[in-house]
Amino acid sequence: MLRLWAVLALLAAGSFARAEEAEGEAEKVVDGFSDGDRAKMAESSEKHEFQAEVNRLMDIIINSLYTDKQVFLRELISNAADALEKARFHSVQDETFLGDTKDLEVKIEHDADAKTISIIDTGIGMSKADLINNLGTVAKSGTTNFLEAMAEGGDANLIGQFGVGFYSAFLVADKVSVTSKCNDDPVQHVWESSADASFTVVDDPRGNTLGRGTRVTLHLKEDAHDYLSEDKLKESAKKYSQFIQFPIYVKVKKEVDVEAEEDDDDDKEDEDEEQKDDVETKDEEEKDEEDKKPKKKTVFEWEQVNTQKAIWLRAKEDVTEEEYNEFYKSISKDYLDPLAYTHFNAEGEIEFKSILFLPKKAPFDMMDNYWTKKSEVKLFVRRVLVAEKFDELLPRYLNFVRGVVDSDDLPLNVSREQLQQNKIMKVISKKLVRKVLELMKKLAKDEESGGDDEEEESEEKEEKEEKKEKKDEEGLWTKFWKEFNKNLKMGCYEDDSNRSKLSKLLRFYTTKSEGKEVSLDKYLDRMQESQESIYYMSGDSIETMKKAPSLQIFLKKDLEVLMLPDHLDEPCLQKLADYEGKKFVSIQKADVKLDETEEEKKKFTKIKDMYKPLTDWWKKKLTDLTESGAMKEAGVKVEKVEVSKRLTESPVVVVTSQFGYSAQQEKVMKSQAFQNKEQLSMMAGRKTLEINANHPVIIDLLAKVKASESDEAASKTAEVLFQTALIESGFEIADPSSLVSHVYKLMSKELGVNPDAPLKEIEVPEDEEEPEEEDKDDDEEEDTKEEKEDL
User: Fold this and answer.
1) Has 166 been labeled as part of a binding site?
2) Which positions does UniProt annotate for ATP binding (predicted)?
């Protein structure tokens, strides 16, 4: 029983001790206020009602106005920057305005225990009346009043920009406290609200703790506790506000190495002075080793997050090449320097400053998400990031361009996330596109002029040095073209207003370019005087196109032809239609016209009459073949058979109609996952078979047809020639079995074998019996033994 009472007594003592500890903990400080301070504030606070239907409006702000939670930090930092700007403005008029608080800065800190974030600025601050009038009226912007007062020449003594943006704090907080002190009010005041229909304003019982400025403290919701992290705060602040002109600091915790304090060592020496002689040498060595070990100490420091400067605000003459390169890497996250850049100020209907960069390398997934990818140009308003990616700043084909656009008077909606007037965006976009195309044009022109200068001879040393520099720069446009040629071709296809500018940037292989891509201007310079069109052909590769029968007459006449191995080349030229008054003409289509003399025309007319029996007969045969014969399912429609002007070596060639798909286009369309077979069949165009009147096979075929139109050998030859011409011209045969059977028969005849001979099963000789082989082996072994014995 005595033991039980003893246990109960101990428990009671422990409870009493814990109660005392709880009372001590209850006095903990949150946001600089103790419980006693808060009790005083509660007694003397004034309660006010918001001047708007706040419950509904707050719900709109929190749930509808903003799409991203972390913009709250952008809005609060922007407000702080505006307050700092006003303080700076007043300090210019009155040197004593800043007083003891001369540093204009923004500081951000978090308290993990209290679950709060605080944004402190040394700006102009607010009086009690300012807190009530400006924070008590939702969507009341002090900056708007400030600008109005400045325009009227009135007093500029207004608060920072606390409009709707201030209330974005309730995205992450269920309670917001604003402590503020301004020069015009000797008392520091505290404004608090929980996003309900009321707020309180009270004198700060702690007195003047800020000196001048404002401290906004957010009591975070449970789902926003991830912002109680140094890295998260630094990331968000840097993302949106890295170019704010005032320094932004985030409070970070660091561990540093410290040496043992000398005072402690001196005390120990005094206490142990009498025992010094008795200490062993070993102990002294151990003590020395312990002293040498670094000790860790936790310290808090203010780390600046907006070290990157807004170089677009400076004159381009004042910005170095290295600064441009570093700035590009910071906004693009690219490890390479930019290929080229343009820095300009736009003036007129809307004014803005911009720097645009062309990268050296294309992203590996650039064309994978071409239709959904947004422009990578960042949009700023007064150095505050509004949008990292914007749909309407640049067209899709220029989505590889990096850079910034900053405007002071861009019309935004209240959330800063959308522009209110599409007209303004169109003006900005038009200017940006023009600047980018001018930059590309300059690159292309520099490269071509550099090449021309290298051909000229010069004796002066200065000219040689200039040439050397140009030679070093040579290839910039070529490098760019290799990386981004598909984008420019897509732009040529999509951008009607800039198609003529883009056409001057295009580069193509030709039959005379010796493996290099040349501009259309160079092609025009090399055109023959009588040539009226720009000729082109498409195919899978340059090597394949060089062997195409359609090219033969152009090589003979020394006419240059554009060679298009890329799938985007042909649609691009078809959209262009002409260049400098010269129409683009495909040599793989039936409408090709070449210069002829009167004698050549008369001769060709006579040849057509000579071969009319063959062409008429052949047309009838091919119609039967494609409509009811072996190629019925191939979808090939034959329009006509005629004597060719383009063939010099091959016996036949197949070309398509003027407005139908070329062979290359047919392949591309057939490879589409969601192809429309009916549309493909309609757009494929009707085929024309052209024959070479000088080829021995055609001459022999004409003779056979004249002798007998029912000649079976002639029919088979005509069918095989048409099918092989389809393949050689780049078209596909849906069912090649008919062609294959003819090829097998021709091979049989070549080998002297009857192609119609029936198949016979081959007789395989029977294997000899195994026992006999074993007996034979035994006899050989016995003979070998006898020979050895004789030896």
Assistant:
1) yes
2) 75, 79, 121, 126, 134, 140-142, 161-166, 214, 416
Is 161 marked within a binding site?
A: yes
Residues 693-735: pLDDT tens digits?
999 999 999 999 988 888 888 888 888 898 888 888 888 777 7
pLDDT in tens, 339-387: 999 999 988 878 889 999 999 998 887 777 777 777 888 888 877 777 7
**What does the pLDDT read at residue 244?**
83
C-alpha span between 384 and 389 (Å, rounded): 14
Tell how far CA 358 is from the center of its chain: 12
CA 788 to chain centre: 88
Q: pLDDT band at residue 16, thresholds of 50, 70 and 90?
A: very low
Look at the chain and count its residues: 791
Is 168 labelled a binding residue? no
| Alpha-helical runs (H) found in 393-519 | 422-455, 461-473, 476-494, 499-503
To the question of whether residue 490 is assigned a binding role by annotation, the answer is: no
List the structure tokens of 308.
């990157």
Among residues 447, 445, 454, 443, the alpha carbon closest in space to that of 360 is found at 443
pLDDT of res. 287: 54
Q: Are 586 and 537 in contact (CB under 8 A)?
A: yes
Answer yes or no: are the C-beta atoms of 473 and 450 closer than 8 Å: yes
Q: Is 207 annotated as a binding residue?
A: no
Encoded tokens for 237: 């602040």
Whether 723 contacts 733, CB under 8 Å: yes
* Cα–Cα distance for residue pair 276/290, rounded to 1 Å: 18
Intra-chain end-to-end CA distance of the chain, in Å: 120
CA distance 623 to 640: 9
Packed helices 612-627 and 696-707: angle between N→C axes, nearest 10 degrees: 90
| Cα gap 173→194, rounded to integer Å | 8
**Residue 357, φ and ψ in degrees, nearest 5:** -120, 145
Q: Is 403 annotated as a binding residue?
A: no
Spatial distance between the Cα atoms of 214 and 188, rounded to a whole number of angstroms: 10
Q: Where are the beta strands (DSSP E) in 502-567?
A: 507-510, 518-519, 533-538, 561-564
CA distance 358 to 24: 63
Asked if residue 140 belongs to a known ligand binding site, the reply is yes
**Is 137 marked as binding a ligand?**
no
| Residue at 264: amino acid letter | D
State the pLDDT at residue 481: 92
Mean pLDDT in residue range 588-604: 87
